[in-house]
Amino acid sequence: MLETDFSSLIFIDGQGYTFTPQISLKESNLSLPFVQGLAIVKFKTVITKSFSEEGYAVVGLESTDLILKKYECGEIFPISDSLGELDTEASSAVGLDRTYLLVFKEDRDILEALFELSADPNVESVSLNNFVDSSETVPNDPAANKYGGFGREQVKYLDPIRAYDGWDITKGSPDITIAVIDTGIDDGHPDLAGRVIQGPSIRLVTDTLFLVWDKTILVVPYLKTVLGPSFIPKLPLYYSSFHGTHVAGIIGATANNSLGGVGLNWNSKILSIPVFDYWASENDLRTTDLQVGTGILEAARRGAKVINMSLGGEGFFICQLGCLRTIFSHQTEKDAVAYAYAKRIVLVASAGNETKKISPFPGTAEAPGAYPASFPEVISVSALSYGWSYNQLTYFSNYGKVDVAAPGDLIYSTTLQNSYIYAAGTSMAAPMVSALAGLVLSLRPELHPSIVKEKICNNATSLGTTAAAIEKYGCGRLNVGNTLITMNSEFPPPQITSNCGAPGQPACWAGMYLAPWSHQFTATDGLPPYTWSVVSGRLPGAAGSTQYNTNTGYMWGPATFWWGPGWTFEMKVTDARGNSDIRSFYFISTL
User: Fold this and answer.
1) Domain range for 484
2) pLDDT of amino acid 150
3) Is 5 a catalytic residue?
4) Does a structural domain hold residue 1?
5) Domain Peptidase S8/S53 spans what residues (predicted)?
6) Residues 48 and 184 in one domain
7) What pairing do the DSSP bridges indicate for beta strands 325-328 and 277-278?
């Protein structure tokens, strides 16, 4: 977690932005919760970069350039440089096309530079590149970390959320892709074989600027985000690398293969977008606001319908001069979330593991949010305790801005070396909600994210209606069975329609005037696509002469040359939810 209490930052005139007791950021060796030397600025219009005679990066706007020169800005990059093609309309709506990365020397007071830029009339918003941590906790009890084979005893959390009942309705669709923005996924694990799509690895790397400032050549190192090759874990690995693989197994470990555990969503594809770097130690798993935001945009670009983010970082608006000047600590994530939401993508995030109250956006220094969970577009998930039969909050889970709760203690899932492990954390709770969102979309792929959240919440198991309970559990405990059964009952089953041949109707013709014939069966209600089949009886004409298309219900055959009794058979239609209708039809042949 963060090593410095960011709420102790204050601004003192003449000294710059400082900690209490007064420690200058320029001179401090404290571990700051953001990347030094890198600012994220959204301008009100698209700008054009150039360089001043002194070698500073400028944009041709007088008031802005004065600030850039004062704090010696070395380079400016559009944030979209490495993202490829984004949807123009959605990108413009949230201002991604006007957002830039500004590089300063690391010894410059980045906070003070951003405060001045926030007051500039050409600037819409400014942000730091804050650090973000994973939301995973590993139990200390050695018995909780054992390996073992699959059994219902090891996945007790499936019963309280009625997963088995939900699977009677749908097991997911390969047309729905769930993105996992995390550490990367071991797609070589046998329980994830064929399910994982490897996306690019989004890393912070050190690059170098060669700048001429005041006729002096300076070499300025800085961190930048890059889209690297797919991250496929290989041994030896940091212990923390199991995180993304564990999350992926909760979402979609393969069912009915006699291996390990089982995911909630058996058929959806899982898109891996790795965003974590390894910092001070092997277990110090950390990323940044810029990387997470880039990951969201990349997942959207690659067609994800659900994005799981088992991660989070503290954030709020930092004020100066009575909040006339403000800096928001997670602006890139905010814009990326808005972009994905406009693209009708369901976003899910873990509430965090610090046993504290988190505020909804924007938060304050006294009551910060946890991002991305605190954004209104994101479904925030708290963790329920195994010791209370998943009826109460775990000792570590955050509360406050929580939309729904899910089991997050002693969760059995995939890990490295083709093995399985128990783990705990809101990181383990969030993917259950993401998996259910994928199941909901497999029934109704056209649903807006707000309606998906509504379906999940309206069918959750209530764990209390007091204000305190709502802060802990939101709308209640995830209930897969209730959600899917209710959705299934909202729509009538399909019905076969025909203008002839059914009881009470005149017979259909199967051959008239010694000519080939055809007939189109149709269906109403239910959820397309439909599948057609003949379940009993005899089709018109000689055996094997009549054919039909199982996808369209179109039937055809050659001339029948038959003047005796007709043919009776039963036609069946099945919709995408597995509901069906069977009707009897009578065909005759005549001259």
Assistant:
1) 133-489
2) 38
3) no
4) no
5) 175-476
6) no
7) unpaired
